[in-house]
Input
Amino acid sequence: MKKTFQFVCMKIQHFFHHLATIFRFALNDLKKRYAGSLGGFLWAYVQPLVTILVFYFVFELGFKNPPVEGIPFILWLVPAYIAWTYANDAVSQSSNVLYEYSYLVKKVKFKIHILPTIKVAVALIIHTFFIVFAFVLYAAYRQPFHIMWFQVFYYTFALTMLLVGISWLVSSLSVFWKDVAQIVNVILQIGFWMAPVFWDPDTLNPKAVFILKFNPFFYIIQGYRECFIGNIGFWEHCYQSIYFWCFTVILFAVGAIVFKKLSKHYPDLL
Output
């Protein structure tokens, strides 16, 4: 147990120590992904923006959805949607990262454990823009500013740490089973509806909500929304916060250990 704790602490230290390298790779990855297109990496922002615009026209203007929790539907939706988009992009892209960077995996001296985190960093760069977009959108709707809006950065950090653990686990397993990437996409599709992105927990049976809260993304999605709506602090969800961080630390440890244990086989399989 002690050795595992020390190992996790070391991995966390390494993660922050290599942040500059990770983000340098992430920027290159973002440029490479859209190389040759006229819009370049701007296309990374276009699809989510168009999706939000479609939601606005369909639900706000078309179906004329009534306000949720006293605010326009689009304002209720956007914080949750951008959080899920960040998670979806990071997990789906990390599943094939070792294949994409196989030439680096075969270099003995390269710290290959940073490769999955590159995809998380790419998604984070895009996500940062949409956090700013959410601030602007709420200001455009003349919602009263509250200091709790900045709490969104706490949830971003929490989600990032969760995604790092998932990225290590998914990327390492995909080397041995190519079906992992497809399974991950299916799980993400189901996960979208298991998290409160398009539904309000207050409208469900309390017993169902209690079960759904075991999904760590419930804490994140609802947290993003509560930053802007209701101005609720994360400390007001004491037990749920403790559960989330225990789950995240365990998953971080499992992901790091599995990645390290399997890493000796990567050069032969890629």
Notes: The two ends are 32 Å apart (CA to CA). The chain has a mean pLDDT of 85.
